[in-house]
Amino acid sequence: MTVENGGDLRGRRSLFPSISVNTLKIAGTILMTLYFFGAAVIQNGILHVHSYTPEQLNEMLGSDAGAMLWAGIASMAEIIGMIAISIYAYLLAQGVEHTSSMKKYALSVLACALISEVPYDLAVYGKVWYWDSQNTLWTVFIALITLWIIKFAEGRRGAYLLSAVAALGGCLWAELLHCKYGWGFVLIAVVLYLLRRRRTMSLIAGLGVSLIYLTAAMGFILISMCDGERRTEEGGLRKYAYYAYYPLLLILLAVWAWMVQRGPA
């Protein structure tokens, strides 16, 4: 998932050591990589979980200790990787607040979502096209459009009503398209954006909403440590490297899963 920019948290203190926006992005990237490694290489490549019915999968795991071990590793990778959900929702909310061009931001995420769809389907499901699940950048894009509408409505008559309609519409849109993490990610991003100027309240409310996912709330430990500073500039290649990493990772994992399925030559 790709987001940009920092926050308005400069000068704030935390009980934990402070970290920069760059460090928060790197943490999110590592967690995301771990998640998709488990989903692509282990679940799709080693276990072929999508070729079984739930009953067949349970029977296979019950009769194969090695498969059960791999399933456990994949589950742990997924559980740990889900911490990235709240991190990316926070970075998205801050990105919308501080980006110099919402249009360019939205187009960049949209382009990356389009490029990533086939690699995502191949990596996670072993199919060129899989309609029942869309890659996470579609979720980010929908959340971005939702926040764009809310940002546009601020200070205008009927802003609260329009924001509520936008939030509801974004959640429904994500669910109708079967986007990964769907309405939950959109809702977390909306809460963090609306409360972005009330630090403590935003952390508490965002943490509460993120409990819909098993471990996403743990991401608020890192979020609370973020001081809003960017230690290094992210112009040019560095900026677009964040956008390129996601599809490139999925392509690599898709090839890896395919090689695992083929087995030794």
Question: Could you explain how this protein is built, in words?
Answer:
The two termini are 34 Å apart. With 265 residues, this protein is mainly α. The protein has a domain at 82-249. Helix content is 71%, strand content 0%. Mean pLDDT is 89; it is low at 4-13. Helix 1 packs parallel to helix 5, helix 1 packs parallel to helix 11 (236-262) and helix 4 (84-98) runs parallel beside helix 6. It has eleven helices and no strands.
Structure in a nutshell:
With 265 residues, the chain is mainly α. Helices cover 71% and strands 0% of the residues. The protein is built from eleven helices and no strands.
Shape: globular
Q: Helix segment count? A: 11
How many E-type strands?
Answer: 0
* Whole-angstrom Rg: 19 Å
Taking pLDDT < 50 over at least 5 consecutive residues as the criterion, the unreliable ranges are 4-13
Summarize the amount of helix as a percent range. over 70%
Largest beta-sheet characterization: none
> For the terminal residues, how far apart are their CA atoms?
34 Å
Strand proportion, as a percent range, falls in under 5%
**How do the SSEs run, as a string of H and E?**
HHHHHHHHHHH
Quickly give the structural class: mainly alpha
Mean pLDDT: 89
